[in-house]
Amino acid sequence: MEEANANGENKALTEEKLEVKVVDASSVQKKEKESDAFQGLTKEELMMYASDPSWVRIRWFLFILFWIIWTGMLAAAVVIIVMAPKCPSPDPKEWWQKGPVYTADLSTFKDGNPTTFKDFEAELDYLVDTGVPAIYLPNILKGPGLVSGEYGVSDYRDVKQELGSLADWTSLVEATKARDIKVIVDMLPLYTSEQHAWFELFTAGTEKQDFYSGATTGAAGNPLLKLDNPAVVTELQAVIQFWLDKGVDGFNLVGYEGLQPAVGDANYNLVLKLRELTDKAGEEQGSDKILVCLGEKGTGLGALLPLYGGAVDENHEGELFHLVAAQPASFNEAGAASTAGGILAFVTQLNNTKPINAWTLLSLSSTDLYEEYPDAVAMLGSLLPATPVIKAGNELGMSGGMLDTAMQKNQTTADSEGASSHYGVYRALAELRHQKTVLFGSIEVTEIDGCVVLSRVKKGNPGYVFVFNMQNADQTLDLSAKVPNIADNIRIMVSSLASEDQYRKPDPEAVKTFPADAVELKAGQAVIFTFVPQF
To answer: What is the band of 359 on the pLDDT scale with cuts at 50, 70, 90?
Structure first.
């Protein structure tokens, strides 16, 4: 029996498994530390504090304090926004400030031949593609032909028969309105021709005895109207209203370029009366109707400044004319050949001599530089804070004031096929006129090694710099030190064409980007570069 018990115990001992564990001392210490660490409050303990009156008061205090601070910060932000100085909004620019204005003398428009209203209507799509927002049609009123470049009017309410009828005119204007092209025409408020019905009655001694002053003007001997007669002013107002109703957007008052109207005189008072009509029509139709004085070739801007009529408001409008135009014969006050220094002086005068806020018209194709450097002159005009006036054919690099239809076809075809042409250069410049930098940006002009350098910049917009090498040799210029806000690298936007480049496709391997301190230009080359301004 004892033997059996002994055997059972031995069996139990032999069947029992022995386990041996090796414990790392560091792990033991870690567990001990974890057991000693703060384990947080239990739910029961938290509930004790939740109902404690002192903790309830603290929570409400912190809650209310948070919202007081948040509300105060919000109020402070609103006050800062309201009281902070406002950034001035850019002055609004109207259609007559963007330009260009395209001059189309229908007596010689196509290949030097007369063009009717109907024929000209067929050219409107071409003008739209060219980037023309406004056209100026001189000498359309019924009257005798030119005498030494001057003409009169025989009927203020009719058009020249060789151009068409009033019905044709209406059709043309409707077509321009459909394309959002504005129309400016001549108006002759100072005199009529001897064939006008008023003058015939005057000479007959029956009526209109107080309509004429008895004096004449110019080589044509046109009789001068008596503008201090209210009846004459009333008639002229009716004429302006007639053409406003016929869709005209602007009037070039012929003859005023030689006047300096003073406050209170007859010439001044007439323009004020006509201005009232155009302003009213503009408000009613939702688009400005304007008075313009385009001047003559050789007319400097300084001689036309009185035509603005005193102070000019922030919308660039004086009390008399909206726009007056300079047509310099040369970028040189002495009348000598244009130079880089002359262009520098011209741009400086443009900025400094005109009335504050005044906007001007510029016809630069009249200058001596245009024949040799049409692209360069067009580039300069496109970047100035003024509305360019161009003549038909200028978009093709021509200066004659007429449209050469063969050249028009060649250049428009080349442009559509990606080849170079003066027309392509002009189209790029027309688009540039709508950029905020050009309309609102600052302007700087300087001369570097005989080259004209003009820059335009505006924060948040691309910068542009025009460089014109007027030297007979290639140049490498450092623009980095003299052009404000210029970037380290600048890229060609548009370049003038040498005669051998016409109708060629641009070389895709040609260098387009230059470091600002090493800009390369060929002799006679003009380029507009674009860059990201650094402020």
So the answer is: confident
Q: Can you list the positions of beta strands (E) in 330-416?
A: 360-362, 387-391
Indicate the residue among 419, 440, 461 that finishes a domain. Answer: 440
Assign 308 a pLDDT band (cuts: 50, 70, 90).
Answer: confident
Same domain flag for 436 and 492: no
The answer to whether the beta carbons of residues 481 and 452 sit under 8 Å apart is no
CA 339 – CA 161 distance, rounded (Å): 45
CATH of the domain at 482: 2.60.40.1180
Digit-coded pLDDT (tens) for 36-73: 555 666 777 667 766 777 777 888 888 898 999 999 99
* CA atoms lying within 13 Å on the CB side of residue 78: 6
What is the CATH number for 99? 3.20.20.80
Q: Looking at the whole model, is its pTM more than 0.90?
A: no
Dihedral Cα 192, 198, 201, 203, nearest 10 deg: -20
Helices (H), 131-221: 166-178, 197-204
Q: Containing domain of residue 320, as a range? A: 95-440
Q: Specify whether 397 is located in the same domain as 518.
A: no
Q: How many domains does the chain have?
A: 2
Q: Which two tokens stand for residue 459?
A: 């924060």
Cβ-in-10-Å burial (0-12, 13-18, 19+) of 155 comes to middle
